[in-house]
# Entry
Amino acid sequence: MESPEVRNGMKIYRYDKSTALFQRAAKVIPCGIYGHFSPTPCVPVSAYPFFSARAEGAKFWDVDGNEFVDYMCAYGPMVLGYHHPVVDEAYQVQMRQADANSLASPKMVELAEFMVDMIPIADWAFFAKNGADVTNYATMIARAATGRNKIIAIAGGYHGTTPWMQAPGHHGTIDDDHAHIRRIPWNDFAALERVVAEHPKDVAGFIASPYHHPTFADGEMPAEGYWPKVQQFLKRNGIVFIVDDVRCGFRLHLGGSNELFGFKPDLICFCKAIANGYPISALVGTESLKNAAAKVFHTGSFWFSAGPMAAALACLQEMKRIDAPKIIADKGKKLLAGMVEISKAHGFHLKVSGAPSMPYLRITDDESLMLHQQWCGECTRRGAYFTSHHNWFVSTAHTDEDIQRTLEIVDDAFKAVKQKQ
Amino acid sequence: MNESMLKAYLNLHAVLQNLEDLVKLDEEMAQLIKDWELTVEFSVRGGPEAFLEFKKGVCRHGPNAHENPTVKLYFTSAGHLNRMFDGKATPIPLKGFLRLGFLKREFAQLTNRLTYYLRPELGKLDDESYLKPNTVLTLQTALYAVKVLAMLEPTSKEIAAHIPAGVLEVEVLPAGPCLRLAFERSGISVAKGAAKCPMAKMAFKDYRVVHALLTGKLDGFLAVANGDVALQGQLPMVDNLNLILDRVPRYLA
# Structure
């Protein structure tokens, strides 16, 4: 094995063990690593590790022993830091008592009560495992409640990988999967009106994230007045208003991200940050949809596991105690302001979009993203884990030292990119 | 559009254009056409047209009618044309009766050679000197077919609608070929050669990787992770291109 390369006093990472492990994985796992953890969108792929060995706070170490300040936060679930003592303790205590057994846990009731108390629109809560479990459930409830077929979604929006949520033509889907899905552009109220008019009394639900956060593109905030107008229109037309808060939920606002943007949906889907990494998702809804929710049969083998419920309760309580969304936003703003300044000093334009707690960044000097990909790769090889295609995530665990270290890496990575130009 | 008509477009606009490169890749075919001075036009009733121009040892394909072809071949239906591509029918000559002998002998020799490369016989792919032209021509067929499908096939049209505007460059390293697909609001175009300012790049390590991918022997995700395929830029262009590429075998087995 070659010794690590050092440039400007900064170690440039190698991934020999990750690469070797990937070769093993490739023999027994489709894609080697599948889904959103696939190395495919990491460009250049040689700049990225594939497997982590351990994690603590806002950092993880890969199987080669390289240390990273983590700005993907497990793609969102980590919000208070890896191995948070309060959340882990709650989980461990519950696991010693009972996790998956033959009856529901009292923790489920406690968690539902806490969420109903904390989330203004919530009169009830339902628990599952992944985001798609509850986005699916939400659309089923919308159809059960209205007796209608169509679901309107935002073009480029992501609500999981079930066939109806995927774009037409994707492998494993058929044309019929999309027969009742209509996609409209983000922030386009006229398009919403038009589609509803085209399908009189047949639109069951409208599903969207609280702000538009596609991959490979800037995040887009709601236009002034967009959400209240949508809310009124949907109500007037008897259409169930579903917010997919899986990615943003609890990072932007503990009452649901809709509270930040000033509107009230009928159903909100949560996952990711709800339990600081423990597997659980939730759907909350208004009283008017509780009966419809009760009629829809939806369940899963591990949906009643009490450990993740205890972790979720502890996580939400802790986030409320410390006002986590404010802490994360402040840390994000500090990090991003520093990065933009450094980019300017090197003659680059770094555009920040989306919320500071889960920003999407892009070097605008090259529309193709190739320059941006090169820079993210250089940062990652120096220890700041940045992907170029997806929004990043900030947590309460990112310390000032982590941010300072990140800014040093950012500076050195810009130097490297400039040298290669 | 029915499947037969779609296949006729694919045959004339994606398969036939390979003759441009066949005469460069195969010395025997280069010798065969070196003195040809003629243009052959193909025309399907209510369907696609195309021409092949042979001049000074070069073959040029056009996806449209020619203003003054030497030979004009007419097909009464898309099925008629497709059967000819399968070697089971003959066209109706509307012009160039004096060249009928040429069409049956020399021209047929050229098109048979294309079939030889595009439809490998058992064991042939073990021969490296065969594998390379087979792979290059198959890749080109597939990329030209993407344009046809993206314009005419409903599902591919929907997929293409999600492709960001710009040029996607596809290159086989170390020495080509290199093709570029331009996705614009006005439509899609394919051309041979590198792009000036590509929005995305897909580079294959060598033609063996291309062959393994095209024949389903290699998982594309693994190929990227292993460095056998290098991607850069607007990857949604590549993702969506691959979705359409995967639909090509439905029509061109």
About this structure: Chain A is about 40% helix and 15% strand. Chain A has a mean pLDDT of 96. Chain A touches chain B at residues 22-23, 26, 30-34, 38-41, 43-46, 50, 167-171, 175, 215-216, 367-370, 373, 389 (CB under 8 Å). The domain at 5-65+324-420 of chain A is CATH 3.90.1150.10 (Aspartate Aminotransferase, domain 1).
